[in-house]
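User: Please check token order:
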Amino acid sequence: MDSPTASSSVHGEPSYFMMLPAEVIFEILTFLPPLSLISLTRTSKLLRAHSLTDTLWARFVRENVPYQQYLEYYPAESWRDLYISLHPYWFLTRNKLWFSDKAYSGSTMTGSLVLLRYDSRRGCIEGLRILAKQGIRSFESWEWNPEIIIHTFNPEVSLLVDDPIVKIDGGMYGKHSSAKGELLMNTGYSRGVRSMISLCHALSPEKQSNAMALWPPHTIPAAERVRNESRNLFKGEGHRPSSLLDASENTFRVRKWVEFGRMGAPLGVHIGEDVMTFSTVPEEYYTATKEKPWQGIWVGDYSGHGCEFLLLIQSAVNRLLETPKASFDTPLLHHFDNPDLQGRRSLPVGRGEDGSCAGRLEAVKLTGDPNVPRGEYTWVAEDIGPTGLLRIADEKMFRGARVVRSLGHSAARGFREGDHLYSKVWSLNG
């Protein structure tokens, strides 16, 4: 009887790889992705034994949940079982923050900001909406211009833990192992709302055009983009990846509907079916650095509309402006992966000799309102350095703040009659 020893051979020739010390083989296998390890289990008994080493699979789980220091494979029986039970959805927790084209209520103007995390107590992946309330507000007349009222607020940010948008339980993957399938999730049953999650097929940059509805829009930096319009609610095969290797790890979709029944048994009739498309922002675009201290995800108070989440980006490239009449040589349309918008005039990003910040600062809505929706600019400052500086504030309220010029975005309800308006001042404390 043959045994898995170093004398194992292929076509009668000795396998020198098999002759390597066990610790060397293990070190080599640490460079392989999960799917390659699974393939390796089918080659020989020796390599199968090495591929099943649980410490290899522990690394895959930890890489996708880097923010949890104390992590165990419970309730699974091993790290390998845990990883496989939630494959191929680990990219959801790795990217953490996601934003959608629609609110959970179906509004196409507002969108949602969602935190995807791994719940080690239940062995599941869940997506929770991030909410913000205005908190305590105060109003004060502006000393520099008494006709303007300055209002401050103290936002209260929280997670809606009782009503997840996404909930993937361990062991559900086997029910829909195809990349083209949709996975039924355990969400919203108490209200008769049911939902399914599906993977997306990303569009390559050369297949994208300015006339195409994409998510996310070009105002938001993204590694991948997908179509955002479909006559059949994204049921066609063209919206799904052909295989797991073709699946996007930066976008996904959630299909939801209302389904009524008796004693927990659904009737099978979908009422109000709708699809939400989610995307994530590369972490480097919302992580503050010494040169880009304003970069990040912020909460803005939009008065009667409530709080909205903004993505503040510090960059060096000017972009085309959709409404040239409002320009002070400041284009507003983003260039991130649109080759037609590359090569514009650049401004230095960083800090000047006096320690102040310089470069372009733009605020894009991750969640919006009925006037200016998600994915649109709310304001843009061409340069927060010397070029855009108007004055140094000396009034008590903003003493020492740099005041720079900017363009603000306004529109009527329904995003009609939109225009970019001059903002004579913008106060920054850095």
Summary: The helical segments are 22-29, 34-40, 45-51, 54-64, 79-86, 90-95. The longest strand covers residues 124-133. The first helix runs from residue 22 to 29. The chain is about 10% helix and 30% strand.
